[in-house]
Design goal:
With 361 residues, this protein is mainly alpha-helical. Helices cover 50% and strands 10% of the residues. The chain folds into 2 domains: 227 residues, no CATH class; 104 residues, no CATH class. Helix 1 packs across helix 3 and helix 10 runs antiparallel to helix 11. The protein binds zinc ion.
């Protein structure tokens, strides 16, 4: 059993997400009628989503072996078999032994479910493991809400109760799933976005790297090797407790920076769509370099370059004004001005804003 030693799973690296990926389309009818309750087990809903993903693409059939599904979605072959027999009654039709079609549905309403949620490992509170089905379904619903939000990119607002009703989950399952997804950095919610009003609606975002990755919308699945579906439980000792505290702290700052930087980035993107702003911005960067060079080598050119710089700065400022933006809108508005939401002060010491925020909450 030599292989066991090398089986330590590594959690997903959001900076290095799989190049290509597939996703399932979990048709919302699979979750059952609101108020009536869920009829299918979650694994069957997932399999239904796999068949629907194919049916919805127009070629109408899904021909896949159980072992291939097992490889992609990490669901055991016996569970897959049970799922198909449950689905066959109402949701899918089977022509031959392994060819399935999703039965016609009135409306196209589905949650987008990334395959990487099924076969990657995540660090959930110090445990490196795959996501549970309930977590995947909650994550998929949030992905879909964030992608569908026309008013605000990568944001969605809902109460846990609403999500529980949508998925026919019990409230506790939704609460636990959201907590774990926040821990795993799949979703982000800043402290101030947590719902405090009566309706308890909170605002969530996807991890920005994951969001951009999904947006790029690469469809083909990569043929990467899949590790066995084992959960590795790490027993906590004093070191682990310290690691966890550090991770909590990092997660706190990660969420704050995301919020601050996302706003600035989206404003910058908006400004760059303006041709005048974009050209001036580029010129300013180039001129900055040219001036620095001229100061050393050709001091006589400096005045002329400075003049061009001033011109471009004016053009840029005018464009911003026309776009109803200010310089401030382009720079991240950090919650803590002392550490810029990094947690570390310029002198290398740790900032106390994390501890202070814990006292407030
Ligand atoms: Zn601070």
């Amino acid at each position: 059993m030599k292989a066991c030693a090398t089986l330590t799973p590594t959690p997903i690296d959001f900076n290095n997400l799989p190049e290509k990926h597939n996703y399932l389309r979990i048709h919302k009818t699979l979750y059952g009628k609101p108020g009536v309750g869920r009829v299918l087990p979650l694994s069957a809903i997932t399999i239904g989503g796999l068949v629907y993903a194919y049916s919805a693409r127009g070629d109408a059939t899904c021909v896949r072996t159980y072992s291939r599904i097992n490889k992609d979605l990490c669901i055991s072959q016996s569970t897959i078999a049970r799922a198909f027999s449950k689905l066959k009654a109402t949701f899918i039709t089977s022509d031959k032994q392994s060819s399935y079609t999703f039965n016609p549905v009135e409306r196209i309403e589905y949650n987008r479910s990334e395959e990487l949620f099924y076969n990657e490992y995540f660090n959930v509170r110090g445990v490196v493991r795959r996501l549970k089905q309930s977590e995947i379904h909650v994550a998929s619903s949030i992905v879909t809400k964030c992608l569908n939000n026309k008013k605000k990119a990568n944001a969605c607002t809902f109460s846990m109760r609403e999500l529980a009703e949508e998925l026919n989950f019990n409230l506790k399952t939704v609460k636990t799933a959201i907590k774990n997804l926040l821990y795993a950095c799949i979703i982000v919610r800043a402290a101030e976005e947590k719902g405090n009003c009566k309706a308890k609606k909170s605002t969530y975002h996807l991890n920005r790297k994951l969001y951009l990755h999904i947006k790029r919308g690469l469809r083909k699945a990569s043929e990467k090797a899949v590790q066995p579906s084992e959960t590795i439980i790490i027993h906590k000792n004093a070191d682990d407790v310290a690691t966890e505290a550090r991770a909590n702290r990092e997660r706190f700052y990660f969420a704050r920076r995301e919020i601050a930087e996302r706003r600035a980035e989206s404003n910058k993107a908006k400004a760059l769509k303006d041709a005048v702003f974009a050209t001036a911005e580029k010129e300013i960067k180039t001129l900055g370099r040219l001036i620095a060079f001229a100061e050393i080598r050709n001091p006589n050119d400096v005045a002329e370059l400075q003049k061009r710089m001033t011109n471009n700065l004016t053009l840029r400022a005018e464009a911003l004004k026309r776009l109803n933006l200010s310089e401030e809108d382009l720079t991240p508005k950090y919650h803590c001005t002392r550490c810029s939401d990094s947690g570390t002060l310029p002198n290398g010491r740790l900032c106390d804003c994390y501890e202070r925020s814990k006292q407030v909450n």
